[in-house]
Amino acid sequence: MPLSPRVPDLAALDLLLSVIELGSLGRAAQAHGISQPSASSRIHYLEKLVGLPVLERSTLGSRPTPAGVLIAEWARGVIDAAGQLDAGIDTLRAQRDSHLRVAASQTIAEYLFPGWLMTLRGAAPDTTIALESGNSVEVAQAVLDGKDVIGFVESPGNFRGLESHIVARDRLVVVVAPQHRWARRGSVELADLAATPLIQRETGSGTRTWFENAVAQAIPGWKPTVALELSSTTAIKTAVASGVGPAVLSSLAVAAEIAAGTLVSPAITGLDLTRTLRAVWPSGQRLTGPARALYAIAGRTTGSGPSSDPTQAGSAPA
Asked: 318 and 169, same structural domain?
């Protein structure tokens, strides 16, 4: 049942109790962190609501009227109950923030998330983090199903039911074995790349989807051919280094191998493979607590700040 409009708000009742306890409107205002004029205005509003004076003011201080004594007596139970409600909410928030489930596609999970986690540990040391790794489609589904609070994907596609916000960028590169003809050439034409069967991740992988979409936009009607399909980036790098064939992978995933000379990355002529990495969470929901902190960390540590405020539901298009 809706409350009567004559019922004062909690702040006014709490202030009245403080005035009676401290004996002065000025001391009560100081205790509540507000100015004396603001405190006086709050008491006047309370008196207007109830239709009766609640305080008698004098040079010696303030004391309750008979009506004020009754209202204060009734208000104590209300304020005590509000305090219990506040404490209960704090407990619920602490329970929520004590555990965070995250999903991330493989490249992000292997090469970016460890750094994010170290930073998050400093911001939320009491939070237990559980990471689930998969391809971008699997990550999106885990977040949609409520298994994970937030996900990070490499796929360029929109996901129905999810907010999708850019947190970082990376670049896809071609990698080949040192003895491959492209390694000796130093670069590869787009037409040659498009005509060559590649070692690829499984369908649903963000890396594979992004690459195939980019080539299809550059060469209308192009259809990919796959030499070998593997479910992990590590397996693909091993196959490439063994001379099975070329692959297209994130520059993050192959930086160490290129530096060591076990893989070579020829330039691609005629194709830009810079891509965005995104955070996703259920549409209409707001990120709070450790999830909000992780979102901000992801943008800061990769040099591409978050595109919008994650605390606002629907703050950016999916």
From this structure: yes
